[in-house]
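Open question from group meeting: does this chain pack into something compact, or does most of it stay loose? Before anyone orders reagents, we agreed to write out a predicted structure and look at it together. Recording both the input and the output here so the notebook holds the full record.
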Amino acid sequence: MTISPPTPPPTAPTSPIPPAGHGYGQRDCVINVGTDPEKDGYNGADSEDTFNQKLKKCLPKLPHIPKPWRKEDGREKHIACIDDHPKGYPKLAAFMNSSDNFLMCRRFAFLHSRVLLHRQDELAEMEKALMSMDDEDQESESDQLALESRRRDDQREEPSRKSLMTKIDNKLKDYDDLITRIRRNVVIPRPLDRDYGSLYKWIDDIKPLCREESKFIKYPDDIIALAEKQEGGWFDGVLEDTLGIFPRRFTRASSSPSPATTISPTSSSN
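Structure tokens returned:
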């Protein structure tokens, strides 16, 4: 007698099982999505509200995790939704501030290289002038003593070498500072593809800025992450992948009024 393996129930979960000890107080959640409006609950003008209600029920209650720089400082706190800010730079800043993963900007690697080459050639010119001055003094027996004694060189009627050395020193300070800044800049990592894609799609959908000033996000190879890379939890990944298959009217309705917090110049949020 052959025993067939048990058939799993039709409502068996297909989402990844969260690791033990995730501490998020997970709730069991099943959102039926299909083509039957009556069965799936998407009926007419109430479809978006119904979807949001179902989505809200399955969202876990996350613990309070304050950001490292948001410490108690005595200022009044308030929580503001992203949509509470006017469209433009305020709304974009609020969205980027809603998650450390969205804190990203351009590296301007090309400009760093141009400035570096410019400063480098300025020093090359000064180096050539100093060597030419040394060669001229070497050809004269009286001026040769200026090469052997700095004090004698400074006592000349026109201490041009002293003046040139001061200019070289100042230029080297700027050059060394530039090198240090570039070294710090090049080691800053790029954002995760998921985080960059989320910010790109939000800007492309909401269009908070004019077209010309929105082009900064279209340089993926030049974008850097200002916070440490953090892979989203299993729930975040599944939720983002799930929302990606829904029509834009649903994803926009569910993500636009998200309770993301932001900081105003005179206040801080949780």
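Observations to bring back to the group:
The longest strand covers residues 104-106.
The CA atoms of residues 24 and 181 lie 41 Å apart.
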